[in-house]
Write a structure and sequence with these properties.
Elements (H helix, E strand, L loop, with lengths): L16 H4 L5 H17 L6 H4 L1 E4 L5 H9 L5 E5 L2 H14 L5 E5 L2 H5 L2 H4 L3 E4 L24 H7 L5 E7 L4 H10 L3 E11 L7 H12 L9 E10 L9 H7 L5
Parallel strand pairs: 1-2, 1-4, 2-3, 4-5
Antiparallel strand pairs: 5-7, 6-7
């Protein structure tokens, strides 16, 4: 393994909008990449990524996961994104990092792909889905809208039938409801990594920040003074997982368990 491939040390934005795109949060991307790498390798005996590869919902510019693929021998990823611009950026990133033989990104609807024969061969999905909660999608970057509570896409992903999900769960997007739905579908939290983050331009947009304040006041999440917590969690339906860490995860997200 190249010692530079820690997955947490992501490159700085290149200044090329074709590569960088309109959204970049280095801290969140680094946390997501490191968490995916650690959880996949730590739970390799539980999650069959070495034999099946993994699927990815929403590849974006692919910088985070391309570094994980380069760092983890034997890891293959099939990504899907609905944005032609994102797919073009992702493919360029993948080529530049020399992992095109193990990381592919296609344009299309992830859930349609999941219902295909190719999708049926994977049991593991990684995703950092859009999770900005707002009354509607008329926000600074509509692609980041996650519905009223911010968890629309992750709830849909839980129902897609995969056995293992590595997903980002923010504290202000009703994670208790998400974990309750996961439990009803037979998932348990194998483990997670949590990190505190400051509100950025998108979560700090007045319309969004006001909505987050209402949601958290109603008990649908937690946010501090311009800050929140994001956890990347491994949710699995495997009976081999030694314990369910849902309670610990809720506490890490500053919520009552």
């Amino acid at each position: 393994m190249d010692p530079r491939d820690t997955a947490v040390l992501l490159p700085q934005p290149s200044g090329d909008p074709v590569v960088d795109g309109p959204f970049d949060c280095a801290e969140e991307s680094a946390h997501y990449a490191f968490s995916v790498q650690l959880l996949l390798t730590q739970y390799a005996a539980l999650v069959p990524w070495q034999s099946e590869g993994v699927a990815e919902l929403g590849s974006g510019d692919a910088r985070a996961i391309a570094h994980v693929v380069r760092a983890v021998p034997g890891l293959t990823v099939h990504g899907t994104d609905i944005s032609p611009r994102s797919v073009a950026r992702a493919r360029r990133t993948i080529d530049d990092l020399g992992v095109a033989d193990r990381y592919t990104v296609e344009l299309g609807d992830f859930f349609a792909w999941a219902d295909s024969p190719d999708g049926a061969r994977r049991s593991t999905v990684i995703a950092n889905p859009p999770y900005i909660p707002a009354p509607d999608g008329d926000i600074l970057m509509p692609e980041l809208w996650g519905g009223w509570y911010g968890n629309d896409l992750v709830l849909r992903l839980l129902k897609a039938g995969f056995d293992h999900l590595l997903v980002a769960l923010p504290s202000y997007s009703d994670p208790a409801a998400t974990l309750a739905a996961a439990g009803e579908l037979g998932y348990r939290v194998a483990n997670f990594l949590a990190m505190g983050l400051e509100f950025g331009a998108y979560s700090g947009e007045p319309k969004v920040a006001e909505h987050i304040a209402r949601l958290t006041a109603e008990g649908h999440g937690w946010a501090g003074e311009g800050s929140y917590v994001v956890a990347v969690a491994l949710l699995t339906r495997s009976p081999a997982v030694p314990r369910d860490r849902s309670t610990e995860l809720l506490r890490a997200l500053q919520l009552p368990a």
